[in-house]
Each structure stands twice: as structure tokens, then as C-alpha cells.
Amino acid sequence: MRKFLAIFCAALALIVELAVAPRGAYARATAQFEALPLVRSRQNHLLVRAFINGKPAWLTVDSGAPVSAIALNRREYFRLKPTTAESKLPARVQINGAFNSVAIARELRIGALTLIDEPVVTVDFGYSARAARRVHEQEIDGIIGADILFPTHAVLDCERQLLILKTDPEVMGSFPGFDRRGLRAVPIQVSDDYNLYVNGSVNGKPAKLMVDTGSFATLLHRSFVRRMRIATRETQFSSSAVNLKERGVRGKEVGVIDLEGLIHDGLLGGSPPVAGLLGAETLRRHHGIIDFGTRTLYLR
Questions:
Q1: In the listed set 124, 140, 166, which residue is the last one of a domain according to the structure?
Q2: What is the model's pLDDT at position 20?
Q3: Fewer C-beta within 10 Å: the chain N or C terminus?
Q4: Which value, to the nearest 10 degrees, does the dihedral of the CA atoms of residues 179, 183, 186, 192 take?
């Protein structure tokens, strides 16, 4: 049986108003920082325990998602409310060519961090849910995206499976005791759509990669692989993205995928081009740490 390993919201093509709209209010917490343990799923996603309107939820920490989202079939369970005209938020946003509704979580609690009236997108995670059932694990309830990770100056340690959040946005400085010794710092470029890119090279060819913890493995764009004449082999793995049909993947540690519809604004043909997604497996193997506060990726 083929395995469906979902790529959550990689390079969402969204209406920018949601990303730049007024943020949810921060409830004060006693601690200035909160370090939260993460669980790695069989789909190689990092999950954090959260509470939405008082109800427990499992959320994927997804650096490739510009906005946070909740599963469409869990909207009623979590008692999400629609947006209002007074909120100045759009009622819908466009994700990969289709429109999804925006809803409001009255209270979203992640550790000691509490967000009030937090906007989220409701998304059909059908492929992910089916994959979870096949491997007999808990289905996810949603994702935490860049719209929460950037304001909280989050630090995501992909090897140690740790998420550090700043619970008070007015506190200056970074998390104390963060050890960068032995790690190489790579500057992160943030696009207008809140996607994270780093410069690199593939077989000596300069290229950009999108830093995407929602991608189970590092995936290269199919046309880039063909131009570079990189050898591939068939595997049982496949992938999907929000509002897009299943897309075949070749290889496991580094896969091949068609990124048309996921990467926009001519970046796939840029100079250097976006060659693919820097995914969870590579980030774990090289002790990847994403510092959203300083916009830096640390690798060993």
C-alpha cells in the first residue's frame, strides 16, 4: 500500500491581508520564555500539544506555512467563530488556487503562551488524516505557521524536538542558554508571503531552498532535477499539499516533486532558482535549528 505523506501548506499562495492583519492579543504569562517538548509523528512531522478554546489539540509546527490552520472537520468541535466586518480580516484566503475560510479561535493556548481572538484558516487535511489512520496514529488538528512563529521569536530545534516561544513580545533578547557552538549560521530570507528561503547549491549549482518542516523529507523540483540530470529511482512514497492533488515522490531522503502551484512569483525560474524544499529529515539529521527572531538557520 502506498504511503501518503502530506506536505502541509508548503508555499501557500494566500491573500496577504491575513498575514499582516492585527495580531491576536497576548495574555501575560509569568515566564518570559516557554520551552515545549515536541512529538515526532510517523509522517516525520513535529507536533505540539495545544488547547483551542479549552479543548486539547495536536498541532504540527510548520515553518512552510505562512498562516496557522485548523482542520475543517474540527471547526465545530473547537467552536471556532467566523470573522466579522469589524475585525478587518478577510472572510476567505486563497491557498494554492482555492479559497478557504478564515475563522477565529477565542483562545489558543500553547504552553504558557495564550493568544486571544487568533485568526486561523480552516483547511481540509484529508490526505494527512488518511495517512495517520494507515499507520494507526493520532490525526492532527491543525498547524502552527509563521504568523505565530515570527511574533513569538520562536526557536525550533528539529533534532532535540523542542519549540521555544517568547511568551511576552515586549521582552528584549533571545532565549537564555541557547548553545550555538559547532553550528553554522545560515541567513534566512523571508518572502512577502512569509516563506523562509536559504541560499545553497545542488551538485555545485547555486539554488535556493524553502525551509519547510511540514515537508517529511527534502524535495527537489522535478524540472530542476531534469535540468541537472540527477538520477532518480521509484519508491512507494507520495505526497500531497493543501488544495492540490497527490504528487508523486521519487527517493526518500531527497525526493522529487512538482512544485508548480506551490512556489510562485517566478521563483522557480529565478537567479538562483528555488530548487526545492529543505525538509524535516535533512533538518533533523543536521541538527537544524530555526531561529525566527534572528531569521537564522543553524546547521551542523
A1: 166
A2: 43
A3: N
A4: -40
- Name the nearest CA neighbour of 283 among 41, 44, 10: 44
What is the C-alpha separation between 81 and 67, in angstroms, rounded? 17
The closest of 219, 244, 245, 241 to 232, measured between CA atoms, is 219
Sign of the Cα pseudo-torsion (229, 231, 233, 238, in order): negative
Between CA 13 and CA 26 the distance in angstroms is: 27
* Residue partners of 31: CB distance under 8 A and separation at least 6: 112, 167
Report how far residue 66's alpha carbon sits from residue 251's, in angstroms, rounded to the nearest whole number: 27
Helices marked H in 229-266: none
Question: Would you say residue 70 lies in a domain?
Answer: yes
Predicted TM-score (pTM) above 0.85: no
State the total domains in the chain: 2
Q: How many CB atoms lie within 10 A of CB 11?
A: 28
Question: In angstroms, how far is CA 174 from the centroid of its own chain?
Answer: 21
**Nearest Cα residue to 62 out of 143, 156, 163:** 143
Tens of pLDDT, residues 240-299? 554 444 444 444 446 787 787 777 778 888 889 999 999 999 999 999 999 999 999 999
Query: Which ranges of 135-237 does DSSP label H, i.e. alpha helix?
Result: 146-149, 222-228
Same domain, 148 and 37: yes
- Pair 26, 117 in one domain: yes
CATH value at residue 75: 2.40.70.10
What's the grid cell of residue 116?
486571544
Chain centroid to CA 237: 20
For residues 157 and 258, membership in a common domain is answered with no
115, part of any domain: yes
Q: Is residue 193 part of a domain?
A: yes
The grid coordinates listed for 282 are 535533512
| Structural domain that includes position 12 | 3-166
Where helices occur in 146-196 by DSSP H, the ranges are 146-149
Residue 158 lies in a domain: yes
Q: How do the residues of the chain divide into helix, strand and coil, expressed in percent and rounded to 5?
A: 15, 45, 45
